Amino acid sequence: MSLSIGISLSVDSGFPVSNQLELVTPSSVSTQNIKKVTTEISYISATTKQNNRTYQSLVNEQSTNTNLKSITDINVEQISGKQSHEIDYMLTLISDDVYIRTTMGIGDYVRLSDSELLKAGIEPANLRDETTGFQAGIYRNGDLYIVAFVGTNDLKDILTNLRQGFGFDEAQYHQAVDLARTARITFGENLLFTGHSLGGGLAATAALSVGKPAVIFNSAGVSDNMMKNLGFSPQEGRVIAENGLIRHYVVEHDLLDVLQQKLPVSQPIGHKILLKYNDDLEESGTGFPNNLIRGLKAHSLEKVLELLTIYKPWSSLNDEQQEESLVMLNESDLSVSA
Fold first, then answer.
1. What is the pTM for the complete model shown?
2. Domains in the chain, CATH or no CATH each
3. Sign of the Cα pseudo-torsion (211, 110, 316, 70, in order)
4. 183 closest CA partner among 196, 174, 173, 193
């Protein structure tokens, strides 16, 4: 009998992990007839283990401060608005975790399995569509539910970014709205959304469609046409998002953010919190190669997590202090020299 396990990993990209278990056992009749059983298994990935350790350290740190509300006892009304909250770090981990379909969640935030989704009345197929590239996951912690959307991870998603950016109707955005409305009916008021890159654009659209908060990271834009489809004028939709419905963390030099500012495409929505990039020595130069490398690193969730760990913006008492702790920059500081 031979047991072979094939695992395909994309390190530090946040992309999904393919995991297959292939069991090969000789036939009782003839060794020439090989019987193969292939099944998809759930496992705890190295990323999940690391995220669990990071989450637990945050819980331990928080528990020493009696002035802070437990991050396992959260009501969305208490964490909505422009001000950063501790849960924003947790949502970064979830936005990373959702890329890998077979994970079971992070810490106290359990990812609903297909059987749990069916029990709740949600068809698992509605959370992943290979035709459009749409993928999402739903997490639960007590009575809090989080819908997390997968970001750009293949050519279909890149095309969605481009087409949506130029104002075309895109199926993934409508699927995000449908899922948001279903989740709102199924799980009630204690619901929020999160996502990174394209997933951030989907989460922002979902939040706007049901009036529940979202926290997003290095997000893709939301088109004027999409907001009109939701019943808002573009200006009205952006004001609602900016006034606290959506918090948008952006890393300085993020390549997607730079491109969106320079091109005539749809812009992200929400209250923008800019995290100052800490240059590595080899990236300190100027010019296209260094700027490209820096821009790609800045876009990654790994860099978002690193900077949130450094700045801890949720420890600020008000927006003014938060701006000082994050070293907020002017939009002009984001320019990339060729």
1. 0.75
2. 1-41 (no CATH), 44-334 (3.40.50)
3. positive
4. 193
